[in-house]
3-phosphoshikimate 1-carboxyvinyltransferase
Amino acid sequence: MLLKSNVKALKGTIRVPGDKSISHRAIIFGAIAEGLTEIEGLLESQDVLATISAFQKMGVRIYQNKNRYLVEGQGFAGLKEPQSSLDMGNSGTSMRLLAGILAGQDWTVTLKGDASLSKRPMDRIAIPLELMGAKIQGQGQRHLPPLNLKGSSKLKAISYDLPVASAQVKSAILFAGLQTTGQTQLKEKAITRNHTEDMIRLFGGRIEQNGKKISITGPQKLKGQKLRIPGDISSAAFWLVAGLIVPGSQIILENVGINETRTGILDVIKAMGGQVNYLSVDAKSKSATLEVSYSQLKGTEISGDLIPRLIDELPIIALLASQAQGQTVIKDAEELRYKETDRISVVTDILKKMGVQIQDLPDGMIITGGQPLKACQVDAQLDHRIAMMTVIAALLVKEGNVQLEGAEAIATSYPEFFKDLERLENA
Ligand code: S3P
């Protein structure tokens, strides 16, 4: 598609759509708990629909009533063997988290996905889940999907040091641990998003945490709950950056999730001199209304424990850095290579084509700001966040247009993205 370019200021208010990580988990916890779960603010995107349809295939009733989703859970024991393979589409979160649930069921199931998901390594979950007693076969050494997963109702508790900083791997082990007799212990490489831990507690379960150490004793029964899902800071990130870099912009973002394991981008914006104000905070649902204004920015370094707190925002942060004075260095982010695409390589290629001075590193990127962006033709390669980053970058192109292949991937996490952009252009 041909993208809008050379836009004037962006103004107005956006209500950010539901958090993707929390939405997957709300459905999962609803399905494995006993009783009714009522969810307000669920993200209705393709990725979350993949999780919903997988549980429907396992016999769980999930349906909409007015503005809520209802899940009639019957506990782990109420899940039924699916009669066909489970298709996770583009969603790594669905595949990895569900693998942890299925590890504890006495069935053999095939988990498959689209072309992008079929290139993503599943050895990171296969290794610990096999140590617990499941059998998982994938393609090649790195266990690429489709996966053939044979679960067991007699899993063994393990003690495991995560070799990668990954909330998906942590969550898969915790879901298996909830079904395992005895204490499963984990140590994270770096603290990652903690939505699974939060929801175990919310659904009446028990989990202990001390810094990077987490332990869970099973088997546990969970109870259905009512919950309201805050907006996704990873979706808000596109408007935060757009507001900072399109001259004259001022945008209000309502319903931004501010769980501290996710707010790394706000720390980076502050370090770069960007103007973001908190207009109000709702402590119960951990969300806030933020106001962002066009700002003069300077380069910064992004590394270490900050990385897992903004991992999904790095493509749009790379664009932000291209509009800052001086150099921004992103390090310790090798994990970016294992997302919907190899994001180090795809972000570098696209921004280079647009005229940005950017260099890839094995574990990051170096970006020197200040070059004007120019028209070109690029392919987002089935990666929603790369596609959205390109749409925002194109807004700054003064002459000609950017032609983007693969913009349809945006529906995996933000189906209303283009409508929201239009709203900001016309306010
Ligand atoms: C997610 C965890 C992150 C993130 C992904 C969603 C989750 O992946 O990139 O978009 O919901 O647990 P990793 O845990 O693999 O880093």
Summary: Residues 21, 93, 166-168, 171, 192-193, 311-312, 335 surround shikimate-3-phosphate (CB under 6 Å). Residues 175 and 268 are 32 Å apart (CA to CA). Residues 20-32 form the longest helix (13 residues).
